[in-house]
Amino acid sequence: MKICIINPNTTAAFTTRLLKSASAIAVPGTEVIAVQPATGAASIESHAEEALGALGVMQMVKAGEQAGVDAYVIACFGDTGVHQAREIARGPVIGMTEAALQAASLIAHRFSIVTLPPRTRAHSLRVLHETGLSNRCTVRGVDVPVLELENDVAASGPIMEAEARLAMEQDHAEAIILGCAGLSDLVEPLSQRLGVPVIDGVTVGLKFAEGLVATGLRTSKHSTYNYPPAAFRLPELP
Amino acid sequence: MKICIINPNTTAAFTTRLLKSASAIAVPGTEVIAVQPATGAASIESHAEEALGALGVMQMVKAGEQAGVDAYVIACFGDTGVHQAREIARGPVIGMTEAALQAASLIAHRFSIVTLPPRTRAHSLRVLHETGLSNRCTVRGVDVPVLELENDVAASGPIMEAEARLAMEQDHAEAIILGCAGLSDLVEPLSQRLGVPVIDGVTVGLKFAEGLVATGLRTSKHSTYNYPPAAFRLPELP
Amino acid sequence: MKICIINPNTTAAFTTRLLKSASAIAVPGTEVIAVQPATGAASIESHAEEALGALGVMQMVKAGEQAGVDAYVIACFGDTGVHQAREIARGPVIGMTEAALQAASLIAHRFSIVTLPPRTRAHSLRVLHETGLSNRCTVRGVDVPVLELENDVAASGPIMEAEARLAMEQDHAEAIILGCAGLSDLVEPLSQRLGVPVIDGVTVGLKFAEGLVATGLRTSKHSTYNYPPAAFRLPELP
Amino acid sequence: MKICIINPNTTAAFTTRLLKSASAIAVPGTEVIAVQPATGAASIESHAEEALGALGVMQMVKAGEQAGVDAYVIACFGDTGVHQAREIARGPVIGMTEAALQAASLIAHRFSIVTLPPRTRAHSLRVLHETGLSNRCTVRGVDVPVLELENDVAASGPIMEAEARLAMEQDHAEAIILGCAGLSDLVEPLSQRLGVPVIDGVTVGLKFAEGLVATGLRTSKHSTYNYPPAAFRLPELP
Amino acid sequence: MKICIINPNTTAAFTTRLLKSASAIAVPGTEVIAVQPATGAASIESHAEEALGALGVMQMVKAGEQAGVDAYVIACFGDTGVHQAREIARGPVIGMTEAALQAASLIAHRFSIVTLPPRTRAHSLRVLHETGLSNRCTVRGVDVPVLELENDVAASGPIMEAEARLAMEQDHAEAIILGCAGLSDLVEPLSQRLGVPVIDGVTVGLKFAEGLVATGLRTSKHSTYNYPPAAFRLPELP
Amino acid sequence: MKICIINPNTTAAFTTRLLKSASAIAVPGTEVIAVQPATGAASIESHAEEALGALGVMQMVKAGEQAGVDAYVIACFGDTGVHQAREIARGPVIGMTEAALQAASLIAHRFSIVTLPPRTRAHSLRVLHETGLSNRCTVRGVDVPVLELENDVAASGPIMEAEARLAMEQDHAEAIILGCAGLSDLVEPLSQRLGVPVIDGVTVGLKFAEGLVATGLRTSKHSTYNYPPAAFRLPELP
């Protein structure tokens, strides 16, 4: 089984980190690969950058289909391009946000997303609506630029922890979702300090992808996620 | 006041038609322009084509900002790229779908969208959720390829009318929203035959845009729709 | 085109102020008139006063129909009598609350109403439900008697501003809706001080009314908003 | 204990019938009275007539307060004037629609309203939203003029039964709510024929009113339903 | 008429107290009985204990049916076993939580539940969803062990009052629901101190049960609440 | 890793079948066991039987904890006892219904449950609400007694297929969820005939359970799903 982790931004350091954490928990028979677009946005902190990211996602899924990829995990909070990817792929496509939310709903009654930067709260709320879990989850934003995480994940720990504690006290959160890809190194220390499950959507998404492939489930090609019309052509990005 | 109608697909015939219908109802002081991307999709009937369209919309808004455009109307059902456009624009950006839904809610208790092709029902439902009118509106799809409308709008009249009648009988619709840009020629004959208001979102969107500009309202730059981060660069499409 | 601003309360000073602000932004071809009932309530701060106001609204629409009015704007937060007015009128009837909410949804992701007095929060919530925007808008009340605004709008500025700042900080509001008619003089100074759009529903409602009339849209007479039964007689209020 | 059944329309035959059915099930210590306005609408089949009815309801509650009434039941489907009445009354005010919906929710998982005429579906949906039971109840309209029921309730039996059967088959209804006051004579025969509970909101409302009074519960005067402002004056209807 | 108050836990002191408060407000013709299971949980503060309680509820309803009981009130916040009881009973079954919520909705626009211990907030939210009143009610938990209430109800008064005041200030509550059975002695002092209605669901539930029986309404046996399949056998608990 | 499939009913043939289908797709390192209660209900087709099933589920989880089980899958549509099990277990507990719904939401825009018998539609709707996917899924019931499936799964194929086709045509379903445990043999033939994914929640649930365990996620013991109070004692069923 071949599963592809798609980093929709162009920052290679994130891709490397994603591959490492995902590979560590894949089952022996799973080949995990991780890719990123050559052009686009260095991080995705706005709708405009999401549009660039979606283009990259489509190109990487197109390549993945030719390479025999069985399922994809989109490793960007907000699940950039997930609907486009489902149209192009035969197999399942899982966004890290929806995977994290679904996992949270299985182990906690209420939970919170701590995302960054604050202007992207709307992106989380969009996925939250699509998953239907709006009445069990709150969204909180912290003021950390995504690219600062490139070299120093640990530095964001205290600010994430402080906001998570507010979520537990004010929103009755019983689990915390890390609202950014590439933070899996925070899972262990934060869950220890908070005393509640802390969820990284990329690793969960990988395991759910393995599960869907194992059960033979693929993206439905009936209506919404059918392949794009024959006239559709993906542009080459410069 | 300068208002720009953005056709997110590459079909010039639609753009021409949109300009004509919008210009016909603009107030004397309004300069209406209509644009389309040079590359992208000939019609937008999938999420994949929406992603291409969003890229074109961003480029046209960027150009519009340099040309002093005061407001934009996105003339594609599903409001392709509307959130991206709001980040780039200073003035208001109005999607034809949300404009049609808002107008419908002001003149009818319940209403229906008749859109095409059926696989795009999910796109209408997405906007319907964002406008909040899900409990007053149903979405129906008819099996007409968008590009067939390029030369012969009238041909779609009977199938649109038949579906609209079902909406009135089964969904209690009291007004009908045309779920595609460029169908404004159907408004008059269909409303005559059906006996209920028939709504074209592009012309309504133009008037709402004029209204917002007249009252001095611009896109809020606080948080969600702030300008994209400084590092953001729009690619040139080939 | 003739558009009638209806002030459902009996305070003439409000009517004068509404006419002034609405006239200032109407297009040259629009004749704006503003009316108020001879009897009823001096201000509308309870459901009981709303019922009196609705009676006045019906009488003014009845008179307006005979005078060839093309559309109506109801200038009372809570949209007193809007459903009754739609039954009596041929053309569109727009409540200032729904107009403000729709405008806000076009320029901001989240927004808040600051209304007065606090007991009328339920009235705002009623319209909020009807527009469907409950999950994007909060309602806050300030303790200012409506009639104190008759002579001194500016005095309410600081208390409105303070509550609006709370809405921005606690509710993530990106735009503010003024929850009372006759406060259009606050739009400019408050939006300057807050740095976000501040919305007066009366002026927006006027422009939306112009827009609906221009596109030929009238109130649907199919089912809900059909004319009242033949036996219906409006009483003369003493 | 004194409970007042308020018929918001001017048709005395309905009032007599309501008094009879309510008196029949009141407990010995309860004095039931039934009133109607001298002027207003002969039946309430539109929002415009609801506004007239609300005025009458306020006047009758005002009189009731002076006569020591402990609670009120509003006997018109749509609960005309219920919010106004709560502001004027000290004791509880119960609408027949909300009472019927609450009773239905206690004895069935899903249920349907069969109301008349069809244009008033919106009135039922308004109350349905306020009670929160929208996802357990559907609303169906039958084409019977209210006043035809004045002399011949039985004539509406077959059309009500036919629609109720559709509700059971298509909407999974397990109980039926009669969507008009004065139909209590249909309860017994229809429930026999349908095999499911058939609910008349007036009799249920009377019993709930007795119950609230017995437990000492009165309308909360904190905020929303506080007494109208001191300046409020009820007009004398001609 | 015979009405049975079911205490789903094994603490006899609660049962005695429930019988006393319910008997005090029953009408002369009503015989009130109160029962409790011989085995199960001493208090119900978890889902696990709810499951034990449901078993006891079923056994007590089975016995009640043989003893000619006309209706049941489940006297545990969370309405333990209410759906099971409806399947076994012919007459109505009313949970104290749903009764309290319905009563609150008839006398206040917004209200709050103050329940205990905090981990049971999810139980209240479950019933809140079923009644549909989620958007009018908040749920607050206080840290009082249920069994401490056995001998000293008054001791919980101050902590309940403090939380109720927060509900009034922060959640706009206009009435307070006591989120535990057996607290009816708090109704009078708390409503005096708070100035808003304070609601005990058991006494309200008794009155609603009397009302449903008086109007002839029984649990619908069509579909959801039909009697359990013939093979169903209730175990004897040791 | 040890995962326990819990069949809440007493029919051994189902347990055997569940073990076979789950074992077939588990990864090499996973030990799958399947258990059933010694007493309870032969099938779960009512709330009353669900209560018996919940008791059995608790006992099996208690035993599982002592045997070192890492996660549980509840193999009964409606997810009998899932909340109780989460309180008793350290590791994750997954209901087959929620697993199926989550999987469906990852591969299709809209989907339908086909469950049996029809009276259990309410059970599916309960889980549907908890997962939040009500607006993307419909529930349809077919009239097949569960126990008839014990020996002849294939016999239910045609009736399931017929109802699934209605779901595709009328509800726009793009995937079908089998609303009963033990039907995994229908997945392959039905998906072939229908042309859309057909989902068995037990096998998906097993894979999700493996995934959660692999990522180190356990049931949150903060608040709602904390262990039951110390006084809690599980009864021995006779």
TrEMBL record, chains A, B, C, D, E, F:
Q: Which family does it belong to?
A: Belongs to the HyuE racemase family.
- The kind of enzyme this is, by top-level EC class, is isomerase
Q: Write the lineage as a comma-separated list.
A: Bacteria, Pseudomonadati, Pseudomonadota, Alphaproteobacteria, Hyphomicrobiales
Q: Source species, please?
A: Phyllobacterium trifolii
What EC number is given for this enzyme?
Answer: 5.1.99.3
Write the protein's name: Allantoin racemase
GO terms for MF? allantoin racemase activity; amino-acid racemase activity
Against Pfam families, the record matches this protein to: Asp_Glu_race (PF01177)
Instruction: Give the keywords, sorted.
Output: Isomerase
